[in-house]
């Protein structure tokens, strides 16, 4: 684990504000942040985000913006003042869109960091071919990460398998956030390309998005604590 900060962002994948708030309160002492995705934001809107931001933990708004630059600027200006520490866009929206998103984030103080999603972990090589992309998923991820960096984006979301290549291509100051993390011996759920938290950090990840291994545990606080212990060992 780098420094003293806790890299675990717990994914609160629920449409229920009460459930998300209760879970956040239970795990707060053992995680470094909260991740709110489209399910939560669509159900609870800006008000729901404000409630979780008030918990005091950094919030990652995983809204994956992807539209023409003008529309993404409007969305980013609406989201940035809510107080999230991190907000993401799709790198495949292109350089102009990413530059515009990075600029628009500065409309809030403190400015949230902007991340770019590279290739969704649900897509494999055959899916990329069907989309007309001949690169392998790994090459496409690195290409999009480099484009994001040159567009003023602070970091990327990528699968554990791509962490090392992105770190090598984009340098030590570029944020790497990875889902698909599973504690040793834990259930895979529907994740396919997984890595243990310890190995993901060793490969160069800064932040780990972990959902069900914590949220579906009979004791979420204990599950988060156990992952933290594994990271510190
Ligand atoms: O429960 P689990 O640990 O699989 O949750 C992972 C979280 O990361 C979910 O919120 C999921 O939507 C998100 N995510 C992912 N793969 C991506 C991007 C986000 O699993 N490529």
What does this protein structure show overall?
- Helix content is 43%, strand content 16%.
- The mean pLDDT is 95.
- The radius of gyration is 17 Å and the shape is globular.
- The chain contains 10 helices and 8 strands.
- It is α/β, with parallel strands linked by helices.
- An 8-stranded parallel beta barrel has the order 1-2-3-4-5-6-7-8, surrounded by 6 helices.
- Helix 4 (95-105) links the parallel strand 4 and strand 5 (113-117).
- The longest helix is centred in the N-terminal third of the chain and has 16 residues, at 38-53.
- The chain has helices at 17-27, 38-53, 69-79, 95-105, 125-130, 137-150, 163-170, 197-203, 212-215, 220-232, and strands spanning 8-11, 33-37, 59-65, 86-90, 113-117, 155-157, 175-178, 207-210.
- Cytidine-5'-monophosphate binds at residues 11, 13, 37, 120-121, 157, 179-180, 189, 191, 209-212.
Task: List strands and helices in order, with pairings.
Blueprint: E1 8-11, H1 17-27, E2 33-37, H2 38-53, E3 59-65, H3 69-79, E4 86-90, H4 95-105, E5 113-117, H5 125-130, H6 137-150, E6 155-157, H7 163-170, E7 175-178, H8 197-203, E8 207-210, H9 212-215, H10 220-232
Parallel strand pairs: 1-2, 1-8, 2-3, 3-4, 4-5, 5-6, 6-7, 7-8
Helix pairs in contact: 1-2, 3-4, 6-7
The protein binds cytidine-5'-monophosphate (C5P).
Cytidine-5'-monophosphate (C5P) binds at residues 11, 13, 37, 120-121, 157, 179-180, 189, 191, 209-212.
């Amino acid at each position: 684990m780098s420094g003293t900060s806790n890299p675990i962002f717990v994914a609160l994948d629920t449409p229920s504000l009460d459930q998300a708030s209760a879970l956040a309160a239970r795990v707060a002492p053992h995680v470094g942040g909260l991740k709110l995705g489209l399910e939560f934001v669509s159900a609870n809107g800006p008000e729901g985000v404000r409630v979780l931001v008030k918990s005091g933990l950094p919030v990652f708004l995983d809204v994956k913006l992807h539209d023409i630059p003008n529309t993404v600027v409007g969305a980013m200006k609406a989201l940035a003042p809510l107080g999230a520490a991190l907000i993401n866009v799709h790198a495949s929206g292109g350089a102009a869109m990413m530059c515009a998103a990075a600029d628009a984030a500065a409309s809030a103080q403190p400015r949230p960091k902007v991340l770019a999603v590279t290739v969704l972990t649900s897509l494999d090589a055959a899916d990329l071919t069907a989309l007309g992309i001949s690169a392998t998923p790994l090459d496409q991820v690195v290409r999009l990460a480099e484009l994001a960096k040159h567009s003023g984006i602070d970091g990327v979301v990528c699968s554990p398998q791509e962490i090392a290549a992105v770190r090598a291509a984009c340098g030590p100051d570029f944020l790497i956030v990875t889902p698909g993390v599973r504690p040793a011996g834990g259930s895979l759920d529907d994740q396919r390309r997984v890595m243990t938290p310890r190995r993901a950090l060793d490969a160069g990840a800064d932040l780990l998005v972990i959902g069900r291994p914590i949220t579906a545990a009979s004791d979420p606080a204990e599950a988060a604590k156990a992952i933290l212990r594994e990271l510190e060992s």
